[in-house]
Every structure is written in C-alpha cells, then in structure tokens.
Amino acid sequence: MIGENIQHIRKKKGLSLSECAKRANISKSYLSNIERNLNQNPSVQIIGKVAMVLGVDFRTLLGTKSVEELLPENEWLDFVKELKDSGIEKEQLQEYKTVIEFVKWQNEKINKERT
C-alpha cells in the first residue's frame, strides 16, 4: 500500500523515479523496490525523506488516519496529559506522531498478512 501511494503521488507531481530518489538521497533501485512492494518495511527515516520530497504529510504516504481520528475524546485527553507529565515539549510532538503512525502502519501490514 505505501509503495502504491508513493508511486501515485510521485507521478501526480510529475517526478521521475530517478529524480525522486535523487532528491530523497536514496538509491533509485531502493525506491523502485518500495514502490513495487518488494521492500514492504522501509524505515521511518526513508519514508520521511520521500514524504518531504513529495511535499506530503507522512500519514499521506502511509494511508492512515491521524492520531486525533483514532482516539476517542477522553482517551485523547488522557494521552496528551501523559505526554505533558512525561516532560515532552510541545515542539517534540510531531516527531512522536510520526513514530506512532509508522507503528500503526506496520501493525496493519502484519494483520493483513495474517488474513
């Protein structure tokens, strides 16, 4: 799924595979393997680089909903309180959201493989 999303957005933006890989500072063959779903477990860093080159949010490539959409209101408030109590600064939250979305994507992939 992530490979298809990357390929679709890349083509929509008019970027060749070579140009996208070059801008993301990854090999063309590696990006090609991701797009063809031969590499189904790219790192958070790689996905982040590709998202930046394509000018999209990390979640767009993963095809996931935002954390806000996944948690009911009271759970969201508890989650924010826990983060605040742990000493995480507001500026650091985007880094953590990215990791959460990546873990969610991996779990969905594992669940699909089981069915």
UniProtKB/TrEMBL annotation:
It comes from the Bacteria. Residues 6-61 form the HTH cro/C1-type domain. Pfam families: HTH_3. The keyword DNA-binding applies. Keywords: DNA-binding. The keyword DNA-binding applies. PANTHER family: HTH-TYPE TRANSCRIPTIONAL REGULATOR (PTHR46797), METHYLPHOSPHONATE SYNTHASE (PTHR46797:SF1). This is Helix-turn-helix domain-containing protein. It comes from Virgibacillus byunsanensis.
